[in-house]
């Protein structure tokens, strides 16, 4: 009789340990305290990336030949909000972009006024949080000069983008999509409010009449169907408090990864 | 750091094989790798398709796992590799969940968390990426500074000449147990070198190449790999290579004597048997 464990016994122990570990991992990942620890890497990632990037380091730009044949729309592609449907019916003639909150001079801009504002055209790669990428050409009003026109109050630290598309509710009474960025990204030269895509008026599926482009972050930061921009000093008192629709549902506020 | 051999009563010798720093790095790596792999697969199932180039050519992926409904409303899972389609219902593409066929690329036991939750998968992935990288840097610094890479991991000329015999010995599951077992054998050295100096760095660089924030700082990085989607594909393939490495590593531990191997990675002490020294040399 040998008291030394058999090979098969050891293998079974390993398998059992592995099973416990895996089911344990599922439970650990739901603990809020553990969640706080793993989420702390977001701040580290933002600081390290900001340190490596120069403030105005550009996202890579591409050639017209690189533009994707199919550019997959993500999120909402046909908002049902009654205010939005009214605007669609008259070809966005009545559309106004409101810029308010912590600004000296609130703005209300028509599409014609936005088209007349300082613009930028760029061919960039759009990276979805799911993992896919598409390349498209965007033309839009640069956000920086618009903010200078409105005059940010010294307390302003973030910009919140309120959108027409609604989630989790009946049209007109659902949760509006919203996003927020800080002033580093707001004044970045590639940050634009796009009204054109691939040389055409911005299609509805991609956020007509106006979508945000924040080229150094993932797609969910780039709010579509933008109706109002609000300058704020904090966003923990807005909606779920995490700075965006998807952020309130667990996604990182800094989406540089 | 090296400690003297201990002669056991039965004539075998207990040698000090792994210093504490290596043992610690090993076990941190076990946890970090497991989390990175399973959270990485959670991220993968959000869009279970791979492409070449900068962007995604949705209609012709290099690799994909999909679900399709048949005319009689049955869900069928497919895995498509380079245009060749295989039915993989039950394992890939469509799995059984709570008794119902569900569209999901991978079985629940493969992902962290087991249920579908991209946000949580990402949060864990990007935290443990730091654990893995800092641990890897610590391991590399320790081994490079101590000259251990040259001493322990770099194969000698004699070992390289006998690589054929080492392969033959491994194939017959005959491993050095005597004096030769003091050192890693040539296949061990080559696979550890590949994991540490090729697969590990490739994993980190292809991961960084996928970050839009880092792309602005290092625009050349994704292009080195042929574009962001190519980098993502390589990230996946290298991850699978590391899984293969780990599976072979565990099989070798089991075949070479799991208790002795496991003890050596916990206490540092590995027992060799000089009486069996003639068995193999390489």
Work out the radius of gyration of chain B: 22 Å
The amount of beta strand of chain B, in percent, is 5-15%
What general outline of chain A do the C-alpha atoms trace?
A: globular
Counting helices, strands and paired strands, the structural category of chain B is alpha+beta
Biggest sheet of chain B: strands side by side, in what order?
3-4-5-6
Largest sheet of chain A: 5 strands, mixed
Shape of chain B: globular
Low-confidence stretches of chain B: none
Helical residue percent of chain B?
A: 40-55%
The overall strand count of chain A is: 10
Oligomer: heterodimer
Computed CA radius of gyration of chain A, to the nearest angstrom? 23 Å
Mean pLDDT of chain B: 94
Average predicted confidence as pLDDT of chain A = 92
* Topology of chain B as a string of helices (H) and strands (E): EEHEEEEEEHHHHHHHHHE
Helix content of chain A: 25-40%
Question: What does this protein structure show overall?
Answer:
Chain A is 26% helix and 25% strand. With 257 residues, chain A is of the alpha+beta class. Chain A starts with 6 loop residues before the first helix and ends in a 25-residue tail after the last strand. With 282 residues, chain B is α+β, with helices and mostly antiparallel strands. Chain B is 52% helix and 13% strand. Chain B has helices at 20-44, 118-145, 148-153, 157-161, 163-171, 186-209, 212-217, 220-224, 228-256, 258-266; strands at 6-7, 13-16, 49-50, 63-69, 75-81, 84-87, 94-97, 100-103, 269-272. In chain B, the strands form 3 sheets. In chain B, strands 3-4-5-6 form a 4-stranded antiparallel β-sheet. In chain B, a hairpin with a 2-residue loop joins strand 5 and strand 6. At the A-B interface, helix 1, helix 2, helix 3 and strand 4 of A face helix 1, helix 2, helix 7 and helix 9 of B.
Strand and helix map with partners:
The complex is a heterodimer of chains A (257) and B (282).
Chain A lengths: L6 H22 L3 H8 L1 H12 L29 H8 L7 E5 L5 E3 L1 H6 L2 E9 L5 E10 H8 L7 E10 L7 E8 H4 L5 E6 L2 E2 L9 E3 L12 E7 L25
Chain B lengths: L5 E2 L5 E4 L3 H25 L4 E2 L12 E7 L5 E7 L2 E4 L6 E4 L2 E4 L14 H28 L2 H6 L3 H5 L1 H9 L14 H24 L2 H6 L2 H5 L3 H29 L1 H9 L2 E4 L10
Antiparallel strand pairs in B: 1-2, 2-9, 3-4, 4-5, 5-6, 7-8
